[in-house]
Amino acid sequence: MAVFATNHEGVAKQYNTWVYPKPIMDLGAPELRSIRDGGDPEANFYTYWPNQSYRDNLDILIAGCGSNAAARYAFHHPNAKVVGIDISPASLAHAAYLKNKHGLDNLTLYNLRLEEAHTLEQNFDFIEASGVLHHLPDPVLGLRALGRVLRREGTIAIMVYGQYGRTGVYMLQNMFRLLALDQSEGDLNIVKETLAILPKHHVVREYLNRARDTKYDAGLVDTFLHAQDTAYTVAGCLELVARANLNFMGWWDNLLYYPEGQLNLKTRLYRDVTALPDALVWQFMELFNGTLGQHCFCACHLERAQRSYKIEFNGNDFLDYVPVLRCEQVLSGGEGREDLIAVQRKPWPQYVLDATTSALYREIDGLTSIRGCFDRARLAPECRQNRESICRAAFRYLWRLGYIFLRIPA
User: Fold this and answer.
1) Domain of residue 101, residue span
2) Is the peptide bond before 21 cis (omega within 30 degrees of 0)?
3) 253 Cβ partners below 8 Å, 6+ apart?
4) Residue 79 is assigned to a structural domain of this protein
5) 60-72 in b/e burial notation, b at 16+ Cβ within 10 A?
6) 28-49 core/surface letters (b: 16 or more CB in 10 A; e: else)
Protein backbone atom coordinates (compact mmCIF):
# COMPACT_ATOMS: atom_id res chain seq x y z
CA MET A 1 0.00 0.00 0.00
CA ALA A 2 1.50 3.33 -1.06
CA VAL A 3 0.96 6.03 1.57
CA PHE A 4 2.14 9.64 1.54
CA ALA A 5 0.35 11.24 4.50
CA THR A 6 0.41 14.93 5.38
CA ASN A 7 -2.66 16.79 6.65
CA HIS A 8 -5.96 18.40 5.73
CA GLU A 9 -4.52 21.88 5.26
CA GLY A 10 -2.26 20.89 2.39
CA VAL A 11 -5.08 19.07 0.62
CA ALA A 12 -7.48 21.98 1.08
CA LYS A 13 -4.86 24.38 -0.30
CA GLN A 14 -4.40 22.19 -3.38
CA TYR A 15 -8.10 22.04 -4.23
CA ASN A 16 -8.53 25.75 -3.65
CA THR A 17 -5.73 26.50 -6.11
CA TRP A 18 -6.45 23.68 -8.55
CA VAL A 19 -10.22 23.25 -8.58
CA TYR A 20 -10.98 19.61 -9.17
CA PRO A 21 -12.45 17.92 -11.07
CA LYS A 22 -12.68 20.14 -14.13
CA PRO A 23 -15.70 22.39 -13.46
CA ILE A 24 -18.82 21.74 -15.52
CA MET A 25 -20.55 24.95 -16.57
CA ASP A 26 -23.95 23.52 -17.62
CA LEU A 27 -25.28 20.22 -16.27
CA GLY A 28 -28.00 20.26 -18.93
CA ALA A 29 -25.62 20.41 -21.89
CA PRO A 30 -26.61 17.75 -24.46
CA GLU A 31 -23.28 15.96 -24.25
CA LEU A 32 -23.65 15.63 -20.45
CA ARG A 33 -27.26 14.49 -20.15
CA SER A 34 -26.37 10.81 -20.03
CA ILE A 35 -23.35 11.28 -17.72
CA ARG A 36 -23.79 9.89 -14.22
CA ASP A 37 -21.44 9.38 -11.31
CA GLY A 38 -20.13 5.83 -11.11
CA GLY A 39 -21.93 5.01 -7.88
CA ASP A 40 -25.23 6.63 -8.87
CA PRO A 41 -28.06 4.75 -7.09
CA GLU A 42 -30.37 5.08 -10.08
CA ALA A 43 -28.05 2.86 -12.12
CA ASN A 44 -26.98 0.65 -9.21
CA PHE A 45 -30.09 0.51 -7.00
CA TYR A 46 -30.34 -3.28 -7.03
CA THR A 47 -26.64 -3.61 -6.18
CA TYR A 48 -27.24 -1.59 -3.01
CA TRP A 49 -30.78 -2.73 -2.18
CA PRO A 50 -31.63 -5.94 -4.07
CA ASN A 51 -34.44 -6.65 -1.61
CA GLN A 52 -36.24 -3.31 -2.10
CA SER A 53 -38.42 -1.76 -4.77
CA TYR A 54 -36.81 1.15 -6.58
CA ARG A 55 -37.36 4.60 -5.05
CA ASP A 56 -35.90 7.99 -5.87
CA ASN A 57 -36.59 9.98 -2.68
CA LEU A 58 -33.31 9.13 -1.00
CA ASP A 59 -31.40 11.28 1.49
CA ILE A 60 -27.96 11.47 -0.14
CA LEU A 61 -24.58 12.67 1.16
CA ILE A 62 -21.76 13.34 -1.29
CA ALA A 63 -18.65 13.28 0.89
CA GLY A 64 -15.84 15.24 -0.73
CA CYS A 65 -18.14 16.55 -3.43
CA GLY A 66 -15.58 18.64 -5.34
CA SER A 67 -16.80 21.07 -7.95
CA ASN A 68 -19.53 19.04 -9.67
CA ALA A 69 -20.68 15.83 -8.00
CA ALA A 70 -23.22 17.08 -5.46
CA ALA A 71 -24.84 19.41 -8.01
CA ARG A 72 -24.93 16.62 -10.60
CA TYR A 73 -26.66 14.32 -8.12
CA ALA A 74 -29.23 16.98 -7.23
CA PHE A 75 -29.81 17.74 -10.92
CA HIS A 76 -30.44 14.12 -11.88
CA HIS A 77 -32.31 13.20 -8.67
CA PRO A 78 -34.89 15.97 -8.19
CA ASN A 79 -36.88 13.93 -5.63
CA ALA A 80 -33.81 13.29 -3.48
CA LYS A 81 -32.39 15.54 -0.79
CA VAL A 82 -28.69 15.98 -1.50
CA VAL A 83 -26.00 17.27 0.86
CA GLY A 84 -22.49 17.98 -0.40
CA ILE A 85 -19.49 18.52 1.89
CA ASP A 86 -15.95 19.49 0.93
CA ILE A 87 -12.89 21.15 2.46
CA SER A 88 -12.32 23.42 -0.56
CA PRO A 89 -14.27 26.71 -0.61
CA ALA A 90 -13.32 27.15 -4.27
CA SER A 91 -14.87 23.82 -5.22
CA LEU A 92 -17.98 24.59 -3.19
CA ALA A 93 -18.25 27.99 -4.87
CA HIS A 94 -18.54 26.29 -8.24
CA ALA A 95 -21.05 23.81 -6.84
CA ALA A 96 -23.06 26.79 -5.58
CA TYR A 97 -22.89 28.32 -9.08
CA LEU A 98 -24.44 25.14 -10.49
CA LYS A 99 -27.04 25.10 -7.72
CA ASN A 100 -28.13 28.65 -8.61
CA LYS A 101 -27.93 28.12 -12.37
CA HIS A 102 -30.18 25.08 -12.31
CA GLY A 103 -32.40 26.02 -9.37
CA LEU A 104 -31.37 23.01 -7.30
CA ASP A 105 -33.46 23.60 -4.20
CA ASN A 106 -32.81 20.01 -3.14
CA LEU A 107 -29.06 20.67 -2.69
CA THR A 108 -27.31 21.93 0.46
CA LEU A 109 -23.57 22.57 0.59
CA TYR A 110 -21.20 22.72 3.58
CA ASN A 111 -17.51 23.58 3.95
CA LEU A 112 -16.76 20.64 6.19
CA ARG A 113 -14.19 17.92 6.75
CA LEU A 114 -15.47 14.45 6.04
CA GLU A 115 -14.54 13.37 9.58
CA GLU A 116 -16.95 16.03 10.91
CA ALA A 117 -20.01 14.73 9.01
CA HIS A 118 -21.77 13.99 12.30
CA THR A 119 -21.98 17.73 13.02
CA LEU A 120 -24.61 17.94 10.28
CA GLU A 121 -26.95 16.11 12.68
CA GLN A 122 -28.46 14.24 9.73
CA ASN A 123 -28.57 10.59 8.65
CA PHE A 124 -28.50 9.33 5.09
CA ASP A 125 -29.80 6.43 2.99
CA PHE A 126 -26.92 6.68 0.56
CA ILE A 127 -23.42 8.13 0.83
CA GLU A 128 -20.94 8.42 -2.01
CA ALA A 129 -17.25 8.79 -1.16
CA SER A 130 -15.65 8.64 -4.56
CA GLY A 131 -12.00 9.64 -4.82
CA VAL A 132 -11.82 11.09 -1.32
CA LEU A 133 -10.91 8.49 1.33
CA HIS A 134 -7.51 7.87 -0.26
CA HIS A 135 -6.61 11.55 0.26
CA LEU A 136 -7.36 11.59 4.00
CA PRO A 137 -4.67 11.43 6.70
CA ASP A 138 -6.54 8.44 8.16
CA PRO A 139 -8.93 6.76 5.66
CA VAL A 140 -10.23 4.34 8.31
CA LEU A 141 -11.22 7.22 10.57
CA GLY A 142 -12.93 8.89 7.60
CA LEU A 143 -14.93 5.80 6.70
CA ARG A 144 -15.95 5.32 10.31
CA ALA A 145 -17.21 8.91 10.32
CA LEU A 146 -19.40 8.16 7.31
CA GLY A 147 -20.73 5.07 9.07
CA ARG A 148 -21.88 7.30 11.94
CA VAL A 149 -24.29 9.16 9.65
CA LEU A 150 -25.46 6.15 7.62
CA ARG A 151 -28.91 4.75 8.29
CA ARG A 152 -29.23 1.12 9.37
CA GLU A 153 -30.28 -0.08 5.90
CA GLY A 154 -28.12 2.44 4.06
CA THR A 155 -25.20 1.97 1.68
CA ILE A 156 -21.86 3.74 1.22
CA ALA A 157 -20.50 3.69 -2.34
CA ILE A 158 -16.71 4.02 -2.30
CA MET A 159 -14.01 4.54 -4.91
CA VAL A 160 -10.35 4.39 -3.90
CA TYR A 161 -7.18 4.20 -5.96
CA GLY A 162 -5.96 0.78 -7.06
CA GLN A 163 -2.31 0.13 -6.23
CA TYR A 164 -1.25 -2.09 -9.13
CA GLY A 165 -2.95 -0.10 -11.89
CA ARG A 166 -1.27 3.10 -10.67
CA THR A 167 2.24 1.66 -10.33
CA GLY A 168 3.58 4.09 -12.93
CA VAL A 169 1.87 7.03 -11.20
CA TYR A 170 3.62 6.27 -7.93
CA MET A 171 6.94 5.90 -9.69
CA LEU A 172 6.52 9.42 -11.09
CA GLN A 173 5.25 10.82 -7.79
CA ASN A 174 8.44 9.56 -6.14
CA MET A 175 10.52 10.89 -9.01
CA PHE A 176 9.04 14.39 -8.67
CA ARG A 177 9.62 14.29 -4.90
CA LEU A 178 13.32 13.86 -5.63
CA LEU A 179 13.12 17.29 -7.30
CA ALA A 180 11.16 18.67 -4.32
CA LEU A 181 8.35 19.78 -6.64
CA ASP A 182 5.36 21.47 -5.06
CA GLN A 183 2.25 22.51 -7.00
CA SER A 184 3.25 25.79 -8.65
CA GLU A 185 2.76 26.57 -12.32
CA GLY A 186 6.48 26.06 -12.83
CA ASP A 187 6.36 22.66 -11.13
CA LEU A 188 3.41 21.65 -13.28
CA ASN A 189 5.38 22.63 -16.38
CA ILE A 190 8.16 20.27 -15.31
CA VAL A 191 5.59 17.48 -15.01
CA LYS A 192 4.36 18.20 -18.53
CA GLU A 193 7.90 18.33 -19.93
CA THR A 194 8.71 15.01 -18.25
CA LEU A 195 5.61 13.29 -19.57
CA ALA A 196 6.43 14.46 -23.08
CA ILE A 197 9.86 12.80 -23.10
CA LEU A 198 9.26 9.65 -21.06
CA PRO A 199 10.49 6.47 -22.75
CA LYS A 200 7.79 4.81 -24.83
CA HIS A 201 8.16 1.65 -22.79
CA HIS A 202 7.61 3.38 -19.41
CA VAL A 203 5.03 1.58 -17.29
CA VAL A 204 3.00 4.79 -16.82
CA ARG A 205 2.24 5.04 -20.55
CA GLU A 206 -0.72 2.66 -20.42
CA TYR A 207 -2.22 4.62 -17.53
CA LEU A 208 -1.82 7.91 -19.38
CA ASN A 209 -3.72 6.49 -22.35
CA ARG A 210 -6.80 5.60 -20.32
CA ALA A 211 -6.90 8.23 -17.54
CA ARG A 212 -9.06 11.30 -18.16
CA ASP A 213 -7.49 13.30 -15.34
CA THR A 214 -4.20 13.60 -17.20
CA LYS A 215 -5.83 15.73 -19.92
CA TYR A 216 -6.05 18.99 -17.89
CA ASP A 217 -3.90 20.91 -15.40
CA ALA A 218 -5.81 20.30 -12.15
CA GLY A 219 -5.98 16.61 -13.03
CA LEU A 220 -2.23 16.45 -13.60
CA VAL A 221 -1.61 18.08 -10.23
CA ASP A 222 -4.03 15.68 -8.58
CA THR A 223 -2.35 12.69 -10.20
CA PHE A 224 1.37 13.45 -9.95
CA LEU A 225 1.84 16.22 -7.36
CA HIS A 226 -0.66 15.24 -4.67
CA ALA A 227 0.94 15.23 -1.24
CA GLN A 228 -1.46 12.74 0.33
CA ASP A 229 -2.24 9.57 -1.56
CA THR A 230 -3.10 6.06 -0.34
CA ALA A 231 -3.51 3.22 -2.83
CA TYR A 232 -5.29 -0.07 -2.22
CA THR A 233 -5.21 -3.67 -3.34
CA VAL A 234 -8.35 -5.82 -3.14
CA ALA A 235 -7.13 -7.12 0.22
CA GLY A 236 -6.57 -3.53 1.33
CA CYS A 237 -10.15 -2.58 0.42
CA LEU A 238 -11.51 -5.46 2.49
CA GLU A 239 -9.29 -4.46 5.39
CA LEU A 240 -10.34 -0.80 5.14
CA VAL A 241 -14.01 -1.72 5.43
CA ALA A 242 -13.41 -4.19 8.28
CA ARG A 243 -11.31 -1.70 10.28
CA ALA A 244 -14.09 0.87 9.88
CA ASN A 245 -16.47 -1.64 11.54
CA LEU A 246 -18.57 -2.04 8.40
CA ASN A 247 -19.50 -4.95 6.14
CA PHE A 248 -18.16 -5.26 2.60
CA MET A 249 -21.21 -5.66 0.32
CA GLY A 250 -19.64 -6.13 -3.11
CA TRP A 251 -18.29 -4.39 -6.22
CA TRP A 252 -20.04 -1.93 -8.51
CA ASP A 253 -18.89 -4.01 -11.49
CA ASN A 254 -18.50 -7.75 -10.94
CA LEU A 255 -16.93 -8.19 -14.38
CA LEU A 256 -13.57 -6.89 -13.13
CA TYR A 257 -13.37 -9.24 -10.16
CA TYR A 258 -14.69 -12.57 -11.41
CA PRO A 259 -13.14 -14.87 -14.02
CA GLU A 260 -16.27 -15.38 -16.15
CA GLY A 261 -15.57 -12.37 -18.37
CA GLN A 262 -11.79 -12.79 -18.57
CA LEU A 263 -10.90 -16.51 -18.56
CA ASN A 264 -11.85 -19.38 -20.86
CA LEU A 265 -14.57 -21.26 -19.00
CA LYS A 266 -13.42 -24.59 -20.45
CA THR A 267 -9.93 -24.48 -18.92
CA ARG A 268 -8.56 -25.92 -15.70
CA LEU A 269 -7.38 -22.41 -14.77
CA TYR A 270 -10.98 -21.20 -14.72
CA ARG A 271 -12.13 -24.19 -12.67
CA ASP A 272 -9.33 -23.72 -10.14
CA VAL A 273 -9.91 -19.98 -9.79
CA THR A 274 -13.68 -20.17 -9.45
CA ALA A 275 -13.30 -22.85 -6.75
CA LEU A 276 -11.53 -20.34 -4.48
CA PRO A 277 -13.37 -18.31 -1.81
CA ASP A 278 -14.66 -15.03 -3.24
CA ALA A 279 -12.03 -12.87 -1.54
CA LEU A 280 -9.26 -14.92 -3.16
CA VAL A 281 -11.02 -14.92 -6.53
CA TRP A 282 -11.10 -11.13 -6.39
CA GLN A 283 -7.41 -10.93 -5.49
CA PHE A 284 -6.47 -13.35 -8.26
CA MET A 285 -8.41 -11.41 -10.88
CA GLU A 286 -6.88 -8.10 -9.73
CA LEU A 287 -3.43 -9.57 -10.31
CA PHE A 288 -4.49 -11.19 -13.57
CA ASN A 289 -5.91 -7.92 -14.92
CA GLY A 290 -2.99 -5.82 -13.71
CA THR A 291 -4.45 -2.45 -14.74
CA LEU A 292 -7.11 -1.63 -12.14
CA GLY A 293 -6.38 1.99 -11.27
CA GLN A 294 -9.33 2.21 -8.91
CA HIS A 295 -11.55 -0.06 -6.86
CA CYS A 296 -15.27 0.68 -6.62
CA PHE A 297 -17.29 -1.11 -3.96
CA CYS A 298 -20.01 -0.64 -1.36
CA ALA A 299 -20.26 -1.08 2.39
CA CYS A 300 -22.99 -1.11 5.03
CA HIS A 301 -23.55 -1.45 8.76
CA LEU A 302 -22.71 -4.69 10.54
CA GLU A 303 -26.29 -4.64 11.83
CA ARG A 304 -27.78 -4.77 8.34
CA ALA A 305 -28.94 -8.31 7.60
CA GLN A 306 -26.74 -9.96 4.97
CA ARG A 307 -29.79 -11.63 3.44
CA SER A 308 -30.92 -8.13 2.39
CA TYR A 309 -28.00 -7.68 -0.03
CA LYS A 310 -25.79 -10.78 -0.30
CA ILE A 311 -26.28 -12.83 -3.47
CA GLU A 312 -25.72 -16.53 -2.77
CA PHE A 313 -25.75 -19.47 -5.18
CA ASN A 314 -25.39 -22.19 -2.57
CA GLY A 315 -28.47 -24.25 -1.84
CA ASN A 316 -31.52 -23.57 -4.00
CA ASP A 317 -32.89 -20.30 -2.58
CA PHE A 318 -31.30 -18.50 -5.54
CA LEU A 319 -34.08 -19.94 -7.73
CA ASP A 320 -36.40 -17.34 -6.19
CA TYR A 321 -34.16 -14.40 -7.17
CA VAL A 322 -35.63 -12.15 -9.87
CA PRO A 323 -33.15 -11.33 -12.66
CA VAL A 324 -33.23 -7.76 -14.03
CA LEU A 325 -31.41 -6.89 -17.25
CA ARG A 326 -28.65 -4.30 -17.21
CA CYS A 327 -27.39 -5.05 -20.73
CA GLU A 328 -28.70 -5.19 -24.28
CA GLN A 329 -29.11 -8.01 -26.75
CA VAL A 330 -26.89 -6.90 -29.63
CA LEU A 331 -26.94 -9.95 -31.85
CA SER A 332 -29.18 -12.90 -32.59
CA GLY A 333 -27.67 -15.94 -34.21
CA GLY A 334 -24.22 -15.49 -32.66
CA GLU A 335 -21.40 -17.60 -34.13
CA GLY A 336 -23.70 -18.46 -37.05
CA ARG A 337 -26.25 -20.22 -34.82
CA GLU A 338 -29.83 -19.02 -34.51
CA ASP A 339 -30.16 -20.38 -30.96
CA LEU A 340 -27.32 -18.17 -29.64
CA ILE A 341 -27.49 -14.49 -28.75
CA ALA A 342 -24.82 -11.91 -27.85
CA VAL A 343 -25.21 -9.33 -25.11
CA GLN A 344 -23.31 -6.17 -24.18
CA ARG A 345 -23.24 -3.53 -21.46
CA LYS A 346 -21.16 -0.64 -22.72
CA PRO A 347 -18.29 0.03 -22.38
CA TRP A 348 -17.71 -3.67 -21.63
CA PRO A 349 -17.32 -6.28 -24.39
CA GLN A 350 -19.93 -8.39 -26.14
CA TYR A 351 -20.39 -11.94 -24.91
CA VAL A 352 -22.00 -14.75 -26.87
CA LEU A 353 -24.21 -16.84 -24.60
CA ASP A 354 -24.42 -20.59 -24.99
CA ALA A 355 -27.70 -22.14 -26.16
CA THR A 356 -29.07 -22.84 -22.67
CA THR A 357 -28.15 -19.44 -21.25
CA SER A 358 -29.57 -17.78 -24.39
CA ALA A 359 -32.90 -19.55 -23.88
CA LEU A 360 -33.04 -18.48 -20.22
CA TYR A 361 -31.94 -14.93 -21.03
CA ARG A 362 -34.88 -14.53 -23.41
CA GLU A 363 -37.29 -15.07 -20.50
CA ILE A 364 -35.88 -12.28 -18.28
CA ASP A 365 -38.49 -9.55 -17.85
CA GLY A 366 -37.60 -8.08 -14.45
CA LEU A 367 -40.66 -9.68 -12.83
CA THR A 368 -40.17 -13.42 -13.23
CA SER A 369 -38.00 -15.47 -10.87
CA ILE A 370 -35.13 -17.64 -12.04
CA ARG A 371 -37.39 -20.62 -11.39
CA GLY A 372 -40.08 -19.06 -13.58
CA CYS A 373 -37.60 -18.26 -16.37
CA PHE A 374 -36.55 -21.91 -16.39
CA ASP A 375 -40.14 -23.13 -16.50
CA ARG A 376 -40.94 -20.87 -19.47
CA ALA A 377 -37.74 -21.42 -21.45
CA ARG A 378 -37.73 -23.75 -24.40
CA LEU A 379 -35.09 -26.20 -23.24
CA ALA A 380 -34.31 -29.76 -24.24
CA PRO A 381 -36.14 -32.42 -22.19
CA GLU A 382 -32.94 -33.62 -20.53
CA CYS A 383 -32.41 -30.12 -19.09
CA ARG A 384 -35.60 -30.40 -17.04
CA GLN A 385 -33.94 -32.92 -14.75
CA ASN A 386 -31.03 -30.60 -13.94
CA ARG A 387 -32.83 -27.34 -13.13
CA GLU A 388 -30.64 -26.31 -10.20
CA SER A 389 -27.26 -26.85 -11.82
CA ILE A 390 -28.35 -25.34 -15.14
CA CYS A 391 -29.84 -22.22 -13.54
CA ARG A 392 -26.90 -21.81 -11.18
CA ALA A 393 -24.40 -21.92 -14.05
CA ALA A 394 -26.37 -19.59 -16.35
CA PHE A 395 -27.46 -16.92 -13.89
CA ARG A 396 -24.24 -16.91 -11.89
CA TYR A 397 -22.43 -16.35 -15.19
CA LEU A 398 -24.67 -13.41 -16.16
CA TRP A 399 -24.49 -11.91 -12.65
CA ARG A 400 -20.71 -12.22 -12.42
CA LEU A 401 -20.43 -10.54 -15.81
CA GLY A 402 -22.44 -7.69 -14.32
CA TYR A 403 -24.96 -8.06 -17.14
CA ILE A 404 -27.93 -8.66 -14.83
CA PHE A 405 -29.01 -7.62 -11.35
CA LEU A 406 -30.55 -10.23 -9.07
CA ARG A 407 -33.38 -9.02 -6.86
CA ILE A 408 -33.97 -10.79 -3.56
CA PRO A 409 -37.66 -11.44 -2.78
CA ALA A 410 -38.88 -9.69 0.36
Assistant:
1) 8-164+229-308
2) yes
3) 296, 348, 402
4) yes
5) bbbbbbbbbbbbb
6) eeeeeeeebbebbbeebbbbbb
Above 50 in pLDDT, residue 1?
no
Same domain, 284 and 332: no
Sequence-distant (6+) residues with CB within 8 A of 356 are: 379, 383, 390, 394
Residue 54 burial (CB < 10 Å; 0-12/13-18/19+)? exposed
Q: What are phi and psi of 355, to 5 degrees?
A: -60, -45
Cα dihedral value 143, 148, 152, 157, nearest 10:
-30
Instruction: Kindly tell me the sign of the dihedral angle through the C-alpha atoms of 145, 151, 152, 157.
Output: negative
Contacts 24+ apart (CB under 8 A), 338-343: 343/403
Nearest CA to 371 out of 398, 352, 390, 399 is that of 390
Helix-helix angle 278-289:234-243, to 10 degrees = 140
| Cα angle: 378, vertex 383, 388; to 5 degrees | 110
pLDDT of 383 > 90? The answer is no
Query: Where a domain ends, among 285, 308, 331?
Result: 308
Residues 95, 129: one domain?
A: yes
pLDDT of 6: 46
Closest CA to 329 of 317, 341, 339: 341
Q: What confidence category does residue 335 fall into, taking pLDDT thresholds of 50, 70 and 90?
A: low
In a domain, 287, yes or no: yes
Residues 389 and 244 in one domain: no
User: Rounded to two decimals, what is the model's pTM?
Assistant: 0.95
Show Cβ contacts of residue 343 under 8 Å, excluding neighbours closer than 6 positions.
327, 328, 329, 330, 350, 351, 353, 361, 403
- pLDDT of res. 71: 97
Q: Strands, DSSP E only, in 145-220?
A: 150-161
- Residues 268 and 335 placed together within one structural domain of the fold: no
Q: Is 219 inside a domain boundary?
A: no
Task: Say if residue 5's pLDDT is above 60.
Answer: no
